[in-house]
UniProtKB/TrEMBL annotation:
Name by which UniProt lists this protein: Amine oxidase, flavin-containing superfamily
Coiled-coil ranges (or none): none
Signal peptide: 1-17
Listed Pfam families: NAD_binding_8 (PF13450)
InterPro entries cross-referenced by the UniProt entry: FAD/NAD-bd_sf (IPR036188)
Source species: Didymosphaeria variabile
Keyword Lipid metabolism belongs to the record: no
Length: 479
């Protein structure tokens, strides 16, 4: 256990290195001291949900978000000419009470995804191999066979009901949960579900080599159940509406610091102190509890003076790269979406890194392009410039190879977003050795609680459920 003086000196050293000025927890005047029950780091899906839920439970909170808006991976591009929104990040949610109640609280109407699409509108999906730019003929399994494969998969999941709530793995961890997902699919005869799983769970990396348990995080019981009834999306096709409204409420309640980040901190059994850089200068935040919702990578967590134990746990995480963009001048017909397939791979899956697909949008002339990398030990395996040039290259090669279908134009980025580091996950050997058990055991240590995608899944609905059911009860009880 570190002494407070040691922690404070670490803080000064870190601050000196980071910004060339000294700081001390005692050097703040009352107007720059903020006292709250809970300080929340990150205002994305998990941080925003947590803040609203805790506020509604009568707790005082402060959210520290590094960007000038909350919402994290939920990003909506508004076409300036028409005002039409395009959700280029999070699109769909599970049809669950917790989801419906959350949106209803902000008066954001929901519909079943796809239910308002005009059935007469012509929309085509082309299957191309984006290495060769040639169209490939894909024989997809019938809906009946896909349904049967998911039924078998659901039967397997039913053996482990706690996995529906988080990475609560049996001890010892069964080999079936650790094996590469491709081997699992063969063993359990669920091959006909693989392409659907891949398409709904991009950003995971190579689904066939990823351990079964990591694909299962998103493809858990809850998501499988949604396949039958349909997913929810916002009626206005603007998922950021939820976050704009939450942001206004949090700002009005002096519960949100935008464009702010923690410089250094002291986390002890007595509570938490944070020195936060904000646009209005440095603030000292004193809180009873800290809730960290940002990806728990060692570099991101540097200001939180991690213990050797915390460092040894989070240092094991690896991740993948995931990027989204909107382009114009693609030369592709407005009604055409392109899925990247290969004729020579299992399940015709594309090789990563590569373009997942190029989708239509409601705005004529604009296309959405998605790009991903496999998992890697080094985050940011590709620069944004590399990703952008590969996307443009794929489109231009399509134009050249198919002059009768696509016109030769110079694609331009209207919007680009890197969601890297994405899908933080453990290697199977570490999972077998009890990684997730150890990670979950950190909840509450040094008055610090944790939530977000790494703790649950890259799935907002499941993050909200995990946060509400598994994290906040323990946190609130300790206040
Ligand atoms: C393109 C895309 C599409 C997706 N589609 C869906 C979908 O349709 N349905 C679905 O359920 N899920 C979807 N997901 C997954 C979903 O977005 C994530 O699971 C969810 O956003 C994760 O929430 P989070 O709070 O853990 O992280 P985030 O939402 O990324 O939030 C983290 C927040 O912390 C902030 N932050 C980071 N570092 C710091 C720091 N040092 N200090 C302060 N703030 C910091 C970030 O700016 C961000 O606001 C999608 C993800 C992507 C990328």
């Amino acid at each position: 256990m570190h002494s407070r003086a040691f922690l404070a000196s670490l803080c000064v050293a870190f601050t000196l290195a980071a910004s060339l000025s000294t700081n001390d927890f005692g050097n703040f005047e009352p107007p720059d001291i903020v006292e709250r029950d809970i300080a929340i780091i990150g205002g994305g899906s998990a941080g925003t949900y947590s803040s609203i839920s805790l506020k509604d439970k009568g707790k005082s909170i402060i959210v520290i978000e590094k960007k000038n808006r909350i919402g994290g991976h939920t990003e909506t591009y508004i076409d300036p000419a028409t005002g039409t929104p395009i959700d280029m990040g999070v699109v769909i949610f599970h049809n669950l009470t917790i989801v419906r109640d959350y949106f209803a609280r902000f008066d954001v109407p929901l519909i079943t995804s796809g239910s308002d699409v005009d059935p007469n509108a012509v929309s085509v999906t082309g299957t191309y191999d984006l290495r060769t730019s040639k169209e490939v003929n894909i024989t997809s399994p019938s809906q009946t066979n896909v349904g049967a494969a998911f039924a078998k998969y659901a039967e397997f999941l039913a053996k482990y009901p706690r996995l529906n709530d988080g990475m609560f793995l049996p001890d010892p961890v069964p080999e079936d949960l650790l094996m590469p997902f491709g081997d699992f699919a063969k063993k359990y005869g669920i091959e006909d579900a693989v392409a659907t799983m891949f398409n709904y769970n991009p950003g995971l990396g190579d689904i066939l080599t990823v351990p079964m348990i990591e694909n299962q995080r998103v493809w858990g019981q809850s998501l499988v159940q949604q396949l039958a009834g349909g997913f929810l999306t916002t009626k206005h096709h603007n998922n950021s509406e939820l976050y704009s409204k939450a942001q206004a409420e949090l700002l009005a309640a002096e519960s949100l610091l935008l464009q702010s980040h923690v410089i250094c901190s002291e986390r002890s059994d007595g509570g938490v102190k944070l020195i936060v850089q904000t646009p209005a200068g440095r603030k000292l935040i004193k809180a009873k509890k800290l809730l960290i919702t940002i990806p728990p990578r060692l570099d991101f967590l540097a200001p939180f003076n991690l213990s050797a134990h915390e460092r040894s746990i989070f240092g094991k995480l690896i991740d993948a790269g995931y990027y989204t963009s909107i382009l114009n001048n693609t030369g592709l017909p407005d009604d055409l979406s392109i899925t990247n397939y290969r004729s020579d791979t299992a399940y015709n899956l594309p090789q990563l890194p590569g373009v997942y697909g190029i989708g239509s949008t409601p705005v004529p002339g604009l296309k959405l392009a998605y790009y991903g990398t496999p998992r890697s030990n080094s985050t940011y395996p590709l620069s944004d410039q590399q990703v952008k040039s590969e996307i443009v290259n794929a489109i231009k090669t399509l134009q050249k190879a198919n002059p009768e279908t696509f016109s030769a134009e110079e694609p331009q980025f209207v919007e680009y977003s890197s969601h890297t580091p994405f899908y933080l996950q453990a290697r199977p050997g570490d999972t077998k050795a009890g990684f997730y058990r150890e990670m979950y055991a950190l909840q509450g240590e040094r008055n610090t609680f944790w939530t977000g995608a790494t703790w649950r899944a890259q799935d907002s609905s499941d993050i909200w459920r995990y946060t509400e059911e598994e994290v906040l009860p323990g946190l609130v009880k300790e206040l």
